[in-house]
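INTERNAL AUDIT FORM
Audit reference: QA-55
Scope: verify that the stored structure record matches its stored sequence.
Auditor: D.O.
Record contents follow.
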Amino acid sequence: MPNVRMIVRRNIYVLMLMAYSPLIVPAQTQINREYQIKAGFLFNFTQFVEWPASSFESTNAPFIIGILGENPFGSYLAETVSGENVNGHPLIIQYYTNLEEIKTCHILFIAPSRISRPEQVVTHLKGRTILTVSEAPSFMPDGGMIRFFTKNNKIQLQINPEAPKAVGLVISAKLLKLAEIFNREKK
């Protein structure tokens, strides 16, 4: 069994590397590279966010990463999580076309095609222990939790620490250090 500290250190290193890796690649592969990096982030969020035990139906229930809307990751996300688990929970991907399909989910990536009304998504999921992630700037003021954005050709994170805390999710200080903290007053 691998040493837990070694796994966490490796994941921190990978997360930092991804956060500071430039997106300077040929235009045709830029989208693919961008979503490879974002897939890695989604997987690493499983290591830097704590979910309450009540988020799982049983001790061996799967840990679910959901995609709402069109899947921008292609096969990258499925390849990234293949064979992995989170605290003994097998990691699986589920795809949703509408909010009503979401029953059990731990991380939800809201695809750009679904974010025309971010307040509807956040309102629908209010009170549920689902880490919400998107790319839309309008997502954060409505209670979104983590947003991907590009700055200086690098993928960055913006985190709204109050939103996860309100539903019992705990984001690691190490992840918070890597992110821009969303400030409702600044918008």
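Auditor finding: record pair retrieved intact. Residues 1-9, 12-30 have pLDDT under 50 and may be disordered.
Action required: none
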